[in-house]
Amino acid sequence: MDPVDVLSQPVKLPFSGKVVPNRFLKSAMTERLCTWDPDNRAECGKPTEAYVNLYKKWGEGQTGMIVLGNVPVHREFLEAAGNAIIDKTNSWDAVEAFKPVVAAAKAHGMLVIAQLTHAGRQTAAHISEHPVSASATKTPDGAMGMTFKTARAMTEEEIWDAIDRWAFASEVLYKAGADGVQLHGAHGYLLSQFLSPRTNLRTDQWGGSFENRSRIVFETLKAIRKRVPDEAFILSIKINSHDFIDGGFDEQDCTAMVERLEAARVDLIELSGGTYETSAFEHKKESTIRREGFFVEFADRMRPHLKQSVLCVTGGFRNVGPMADAITRNTCQIIGLGRPLCAEPDLPKKILERQVTGAKENVLPFQLQIVAAVLQIHAIAENASVYDVSTKEGADEIGDILQGKKASPRPESAKYPLVGSGRS
Ligand SMILES: Cc1cc2nc3c(=O)[nH]c(=O)nc-3n(C[C@H](O)[C@H](O)[C@H](O)COP(=O)(O)O)c2cc1C
User: What is the set of domains in the chain, with CATH numbers?
Assistant: First the structure.
């Protein structure tokens, strides 16, 4: 079949019955566009006009499934200043606050889910001096350009509270009109900290065996379903194929995980990799370069373990040939995109209308690509022209902004320093 025809095919999700209108997924990307006032935490995390406008643009761009992200469920354990927050102790009405962004993203028939997260030990020191995690461990200083305090091991009560927070946030999103939620189980965040034997040193029912390390994920899924019994509400998770660090979550864990996620009626599993300590948003092996997707070889080994849940692979895809190839080979059914949708929010539309055969090149060095993507997100949200990182001039402009030589069109709501590189 012609590659564009392959990418145009809808996919029905097995448990919710919802239909993704094409093969593209906008992967969760921290927007940092919501209210932020370190002296008034209760007022942080409210969706702003800029945030809504960003999702209006992504909705117009025809990415079949749009993942809002990342949305912390606890206002103290943020990925970054400016995150949208759904905290059960919010004094403001989160349902009303999230309705406009969900409506904007869905206006052109796309499905919208939100990535719910808790940064755990990856909460930077300037956000919280008292991070918590599965065990008392510390994210090394300098990871992602930030410093971190040693985390305190969560009590049993705190674990159940975190589970309840994920369920609460899911109900908010359901009432706000979202099609579902995605748990952030990847990239070294709290769930990933529980899953990894390197960061989970517990000896109680939440640590040790794979069953115990993954318990928090499955209890969270159960709690969400209890709060939102409507089966049409999509349950999804983003997980690592591998942490790429000794003693971390590995392929054997990932295989056990996908099988259990399917049994738990999770519609969509998004495969990624790495943590703050080991970036995985670039090729780890020569052999995947031609196929573009960083994790396609892992996905090839995971797919036979799945009979119903839909698999999405995110990372590295840029051109229609390799994207369609991953689908026709049955590596995955959905293609996740990150950085390309910051440079070109309407890339899927342009591909489906056969105006282009792939994303523009990114000539920036890898270390600058993530922070550049945040600046592009802010430019999209402000209706400004988006930095063209396919040219030397565009790349130089980003360099000038980062060195403070040039101002960037960042929305008022986002006028706090861009600490770290912004990846999550
Ligand atoms: C600016 C930016 C922010 C990101 N924030 C998140 C996030 O909040 N949650 C997440 O799971 N991944 C996040 N990621 C990772 C992307 O979702 C994606 O997995 C990664 O960029 C690889 O895909 P790509 O090669 O198409 O960019 C972020 C990436 C970028 C560029």
Answer: 3-362 (3.20.20.70)
